[in-house]
Write a structure and sequence with these properties.
The complex is a heterotrimer of chains A (515), B (340) and C (369). Chain A is α+β, with helices and mostly antiparallel strands and 515 residues long. Helix content of chain A is 46%, strand content 22%. Chain A is built from 15 helices and 15 strands. Chain A starts with a helix and ends in a 6-residue tail after the last helix. Chain B has 2 domains: 89 residues, no CATH class; 216 residues, Orthogonal Bundle (MetI-like fold), CATH 1.10.3720. Helix content of chain B is 77%, strand content 0%. Chain B has 12 helices and no strands. Chain B starts with a helix and ends in a 7-residue tail after the last helix. Chain C starts with 8 loop residues before the first strand and ends in a 6-residue tail after the last strand. In chain C, the strands form 2 sheets. Chain C has an 8-stranded mixed β-sheet, with helices on both faces. Chain C has 14 helices and 12 strands. The chains are: A alpha+beta (515), B mainly alpha (340), C alpha/beta (369). Chains A and B meet through helix 7, helix 8, helix 12, helix 13 and helix 15 of A and helix 1, helix 5, helix 6, helix 7 and helix 9 of B. The structure holds adenosine-5'-triphosphate (ATP), iron/sulfur cluster and magnesium ion. Iron/sulfur cluster (SF4) binds next to helix 13 of chain C.
Chain lengths: 515, 340, 369
């Protein structure tokens, strides 16, 4: 009995009708767009990048993208200079002899030691500040070095000097002055970290703080306790709004000088007796990013929008199609049985429909929160939403079951199951499809709401999770509007797509559904 | 009459079932969570008890845990707890909250009714205001739209409804808070200190929630009213009235609106009750608005099963009673509805 | 259409009643008010023979369709019995199912539980009045006609089924069958659809087909063709019909015997030709008089036997003779016409017996007591 031909025919005519209405056309175009995006993500980004995005692998994203950068179109004063100083860019002097002042038994004495110096000069030209400066610096001191002192400074165009480090170091190991140490077997690499929000326990914090406080001593600028990279490259101007910071343009010089003394008999050029810079990078991050900006973990919002598409499809489609299908069969049975069984079915559906679904969903997610995945969430929603279409489907089934052709089938000897599944259910199906499509927006919004409350699949970068991240990082208060505006808009457009489609389908399949 | 009795019995069945289901779903796992939390707290405390052997420490913790479990009745199986809650509620016995307390009027009281009684005014304040505003805007819009389907107003209503349905309230809330509270400083934000006895303060504080809810409700309400009105406009008696030369204004007021009133009343009342009782947990959270939705969240976060259960009971009762009342209203307002 | 080869009795309805309960208010139930019923079929008896077309005639709402559906057990029967003689294969299936069968190989359709009724559907079929509503719009003709084959598992292969369908379509003159088999009902004309409906009814070679006003919704121009088809099938495959119609002109064309129904009861029954040429019951007279007749002389009859008022509701059946509020004779009697005095007493009080007034002719009217 599979009426494939009929379906094909009605599909082609119906899709033409849908295409003719404005909402149908918009819906179809958007749907195709979203499908293409979903396909792209599944083909190229799944699962590594989606998981990395969802979990926000800390060191990875900030190295590639600026943190909390607004979209570039919204920034008038862009930091448009590329400054990325690598190890190889540094100028290095050879090992030179120098006199070292050390504390002797009877006051300071001068002895002959060695000095090695790294430096780099760059021009700061931009009118804006970078969003951050990523810095990594690590120094290796040979195990047979008996004395070491390291100076790490930045000389500014106005002649002032900012000191990052001015102290001794442990011998016989690599010390990361700044950056995140990453060990891979025997290899140690140091990933650059942003200068903004240096933790107070960091090696360079107190040096930096001291020189910055000195630099801004006679101004109203407050340095404590959070260090902002702006302070390194700023000068104070007196404007209409009081004292503000503007970039101090000109030549800056980074200088790292090690003064050291190897033990007797150890060559200052040998590995054991020397001091070497092992890793170094200064990377100025732009103060805006792309069309959509980045979030507080430096993840590009635009990428997140793209990655969220397939997950929106998965959750929306699974929940709606399973629950409307279950609801449709249930409603068909309730309409077919006109006795106590039908009544009982309706009572149960009524109870499920009267459950306060969001609180229950929250409670359930709370209970399952340790093991929550997209499919668990979908399951929970199906558990609560299947009864939604029952009333409409039942009345449709009731109408159909009173059609003469159903009686004719009975007169031919058809049993209950044949009548239900061959005659009534296929007629109810179009209603079901319309209901399913129309209920996708609700599901998407519900999933986002649950994610906002913290009940999201940790491996799925859904738009709801982006919103949660924004909400939890106080994005509203901090003015990072792009972190919640765009995921929300994506959600709205995605939902609207199905609403438009549903409305275009509705009059064709079920003229009376609207009431 | 028969249908009335049947409906009343149905109401009771649904009410009991919903209450029991919520109690059953929550009491077991929530009790476990509560026990674990208390145990962790005890394990922290025991570190301050100096001079105890590990064995004694364990006993110290277990002893107190046992007393706690018994005092809170957490050792009873879930079905007994759920049954007890349900029966208590049916007998109109107020439950006692386990962790939440009332904040303002009956300070420190653990009576769930007091806690709910404190929150309900907030919900009513917010949602009645926005329902009235919604009706004020939506009805004229719907009328204009239905009079010239496909016109500019109609298209506006349709587009608006698309956004109204597919946009989460709480998301618009976030956007509005940023714009109106933090950027332009027009209204008070969710973190603002509010003096609830000062009308100006209250208005400044409720402006954003009301605007958000109203804007999004207008679209959906207007669209549904438009559909109802459109159907009514196409009914025979309207055509007849027009053919008889009844002035358009009278057609509208005497015929169309009267016939379309019952379903429109239903829409407005239902959305009002639904949002008062449970529609806005997340929105209230974002606005830091201490209504019923927020109470649900507070109860869940603090594992307060009695509050959760009684809240469900009361909200379901309200919802079902509204439905019941509307059913009756409908039958008397609209002679076409059969009392089957 | 009187044919002489009428065979043995295959169906016999005895005092068949179908009452539909009227939904009543709760308060009325509490007050102990008697439960109300629609007396759709109120105790009728008749018999149908092999190769006979037995007609049920009457106004709209008199219970014709309900009678037919009661025989097919498509509506619940209140009381009475319907004795039917199934074909051999059906009989053996019934015996297998443990249905009680009498010594003549007859069964009581009313007392068989629904679950065991299925084999009987091969013998008893129906053609509906509405050729549009009686076919699933999503079914192709092959599915409509072939459904019974699937349901009763009559054949095992696709080819056999196809062959059966084509054969039956040929039989109802939907030729070439291959042209129709894959169409949808909406792609056919009303007459063609009714042919499909007939094909569906006869595909399993039933013994008795209930034709419920099969031509009343068709264009006048094609009615004759379809009626001719019915007659032809009766001749070719020995079918019997219970033919339901409200149109005596149609009845005259197809029926062997006619039963005239009024408000759930048969008021007159007999040979078709006799009933039409010489109606005895006042109601029949009125019906016959209403037949459009080309002969202007006969038109006077209409004025002669008018009918008064509207059909009363089937819930409150008038006492005595249920036709009396509308009966001209009774009204004349009340008006004092002589020689009819006994009607004044009897008609509104006592139900007239259904008496045989001559061989093969029964009437329920005090006039013919
Ligand atoms: N399922 C039912 N429930 C209640 N009443 C019914 C039902 N089916 C039929 N009736 C009533 O029974 C009476 C007889 O109906 P039936 O359909 O048998 O009449 P009919 O003679 O076939 O009329 P028509 O010529 O209009 O087809 C009518 O009063 C009808 O309203
Ligand atoms: S019994 Fe009396 S009322 Fe009935 S039909 Fe005969 S004459 Fe008329
Ligand atoms: Mg009929």
């Amino acid at each position: 009995m599979p009426n494939l031909k009929h379906w094909k025919e009605s599909f082609s005519t119906n899709s033409r009708i849908i295409w003719m209405s404005f909402s149908g056309k918009t819906g179809i175009i958007l749907l195709i767009l979203f499908l293409v995006m979903a396909g792209y993500v599944v083909a190229f980004y799944y699962p590594t990048i989606t998981t990395e995005y969802a979990q926000g692998v800390t060191a990875l994203w900030p190295y590639k993208y600026p943190v909390n950068a607004p979209p570039c179109w919204s920034v008038s004063n862009k930091f448009n200079q590329r400054i990325d100083i690598r190890y190889g860019d540094l100028n290095k002097t050879g090992i030179e002899k120098t006199l070292i002042t050390v504390q002797g038994l009877f006051g300071p004495i001068k002895i002959e030691g060695y000095k090695t110096e790294y430096f780099y000069k760059f021009k700061y030209k931009s009118n804006a500040f970078p969003s951050d400066v990523l810095v990594s610096t690590a120094v290796r001191v040979g195990e047979n070095v008996s004395f070491i002192k390291l100076y790490y400074t930045l000389d500014r165009p106005d002649g002032s000097r900012i000191t990052f480090y001015d102290s001794t170091l442990q011998t016989g190991k690599i010390t990361a002055l700044y950056g995140a140490i990453e060990r891979k077997g025997n290899n140690i690499s140091v990933l650059p970290l942003g200068l903004t929000y240096i933790s107070q326990s960091n090696r360079i914090y107190s040096f930096l703080m001291r020189s910055l406080q000195k630099l801004y001593a006679n101004t109203s600028i407050i340095v404590n306790p959070i260090i902002d990279n702006e302070l390194l490259f700023a000068k104070v101007v007196n404007g209409s709004k009081g004292e503000t910071l503007v970039p101090l343009k000109g030549d800056y010089t980074i200088n790292i000088t090690a003064v050291f003394l190897p033990e007797k008999g150890v060559s200052p050029t040998s590995n054991r007796g020397s001091v070497n810079l092992t890793s170094f990078e200064w990377k100025f991050m732009p103060n805006c990013y792309g069309l959509f900006g980045t979030d507080n973990q430096a993840r590009p919002i635009g990428l997140g929008l793209l990655l969220g598409v397939p997950f929106a499809f998965v959750i929306g489609f699974t929940v709606t199609f399973v629950s409307t299908f279950v609801g449709a069969i249930y409603g068909t049975l309730a309409g077919f049985w006109k006795d106590i069984r039908g009544e009982a079915l309706m009572r149960v559906a009524d109870i499920v429909n009267s459950l306060p679904f969001l609180p229950i969903l929250i409670v359930l997610s709370y209970i399952f929160r340790q093991s929550i995945t997209l499919m668990v969430l979908a399951g929970l929603m199906i558990l609560l939403f299947w009864a939604g279409p029952v009333i409409v489907i039942r009345s449709a089934a009731l109408q159909i079951s009173e059609q003469l052709y159903v009686e004719a089938a009975r007169a031919s000897g058809a049993g209950a199951s044949r009548i239900i599944f061959r005659h009534i259910f296929p007629q109810v199906l179009p209603y079901t499809i319309a209901i399913a499509v129309l209920s996708i927006p609700g599901i998407i919004v519900t999933e986002a709401g649950l994610a906002l409350l913290g009940f999201g699949d940790p491996t799925a970068p859904t738009w709801g999770k982006m919103l949660q991240n924004a909400y939890n990082s106080q994005a509203i208060l901090n003015g990072w509007w792009w972190t919640y505006l765009f995921p929300g808009l994506a959600l709205v457009v995605f939902s609207a797509t199905f609403l438009l489609l549903g409305r275009a389908i509705e009059p064709i399949v079920a003229p009376k559904l609207q009431k | 009459m028969r249908w009335l009795v049947i409906k009343a019995v149905n109401l009771l069945i649904v009410l009991v079932a919903v209450t029991f289901i919520v109690a059953a779903m929550t009491s077991g796992p929530m009790a476990q969570i509560q026990i674990n939390q208390y145990k962790q707290a005890l394990q922290q405390q025991v570190k301050n008890q100096l001079g105890l052997t590990p064995q004694e420490r364990m006993e110290w913790v277990n002893e107190r845990l046992q007393t706690y479990i018994e005092s809170q009745g957490l050792n009873k199986p879930w079905y007994i707890l759920s049954l007890k809650y349900t029966i208590d509620l049916l007998k109109f016995t107020d439950l006692n909250s386990t962790t939440l307390t009332s904040m303002y009027w009956h300070q420190g009281s653990r009576k769930v009714l007091y806690i709910i009684g404190e929150r309900i005014p907030f919900s009513i304040l917010l949602f009645t205001t926005s329902s009235i505003l919604t009706l004020l805007f939506a009805l004229p819009l719907a009328l204009y739209a239905a009079r010239s389907p496909g016109g500019r107003v109609d298209n506006t209503v349709i587009t608006w409804s698309v956004f109204g349905v597919s946009m989460p309230w709480w998301w618009l809330a976030m956007v509005f808070i940023y714009l109106f509270a933090y950027k332009w400083h027009i209204f008070a934000g969710p973190g603002a200190q509010t003096d609830w006895t000062n009308i100006v303060d209250v208005l400044r504080r409720m402006a954003l929630p009301v605007i958000t809810v109203t804007i999004l409700s207008i679209g959906d309400s207007a669209f549904r009213m438009r559909n109802i009105l459109l159907d009514t406009f196409n009914e025979d008696f309207v055509t007849v009235a027009r053919a008889k030369g009844v002035p358009e204004h009278d057609v509208l007021m005497k015929h169309v609106l009267r016939a379309a009133a019952p379903p429109i009343v239903t829409i407005v009342l239902f959305s009002l009750v639904l949002s008062v009782v449970n529609g806005a947990i997340i929105t209230e959270l974002v606005f830091n608005w201490f209504g019923m939705g927020r109470l649900y969240w507070d109860a869940i976060e603090s594992n307060d099963v009695p509050v959760l259960v009684e809240l469900t009971y009361i909200t379901t009762l309200l919802y079902l009673l509204t439905r019941f009342a509307l059913d009756i209203l409908y039958t008397y307002l609209d002679p076409r509805v059969k009392r089957a | 259409m009187y044919s002489t080869d009428i065979g043995e009795k295959i169906l016999e309805a005895n005092n068949l009643k179908v009452w539909f309960p009227v939904s009543q208010s709760f308060i009325d139930n509490l007050k102990g008010k008697a439960k109300l019923y629609v007396h759709a079929v109120d105790g009728i008896s008749f018999e149908v023979h092999e190769r006979e077309t037995f007609c049920l005639v009457g106004e709209s709402g008199c219970g014709k369709t309900t009678t037919g559906k009661a025989i097919l057990r498509l509506v619940p029967v209140t009381s009475g019995s319907v004795i039917f003689k199934p074909s051999k294969s059906v009989l053996s299936d019934l015996r297998e199912n443990g249905v009680s069968v009498d010594s003549d190989g007859r069964v009581d359709l009313v007392s068989i539980p629904q679950k065991k009724f299925k084999p009987l559907r091969r013998d008893l079929q129906i053609v509906y009045q509405d050729p549009y509503g009686s076919m699933n719009p999503r079914y192709r003709i092959r599915d409509v006609v072939g459904e019974a084959i699937d349901v009763h598992k009559m054949v095992s292969t696709r080819e056999e089924k196809e062959e059966m369908i084509i054969r039956v379509l040929d039989k109802v003159r939907l030729t070439p069958a291959e042209d129709f088999i894959d169409r949808y009902p909406h792609q056919l004309s009303g007459g063609q659809r009714q042919r499909v409906a007939i094909a569906r009814a006869i595909i399993l070679n039933p013994r008795l087909v209930i034709a419920d006003e099969p031509v009343s919704m068709l264009d006048v121009s094609i009615r004759a063709e379809i009626l001719e088809l019915f007659n032809e099938l009766k001749r070719d495959i020995g079918l019997s019909y219970i033919f339901i119609t409200h149109d005596l002109a149609v009845a005259r064309y197809v029926c062997n015997r006619i039963a005239v129904m009024y408000l759930g009861k048969i008021v007159e029954m007999g040979e078709a030709r006799e009933i039409i040429s010489d109606p005895l019951h006042p109601y029949t007279k009125a019906l016959v008089a209403a037949i459009p007749d080309p002969n202007p002389e006969n038109r006077k009859k209409i004025r002669e036997v008018p009918i008064i008022g509207e059909v009363p509701s089937a819930i409150n059946i008038p006492p005595g003779c249920r036709f009396h509020p509308r009966c001209v004779y009774y009204n004349r009697a009340v008006g004092g016409q002589e020689g009819m005095a006994k009607l004044v007493d009897k008609c509104p009080k006592e139900e007239p017996p259904f008496k045989e007034v001559k061989p093969g002719r029964r009437v329920a009217c005090w006039l013919h007591d």
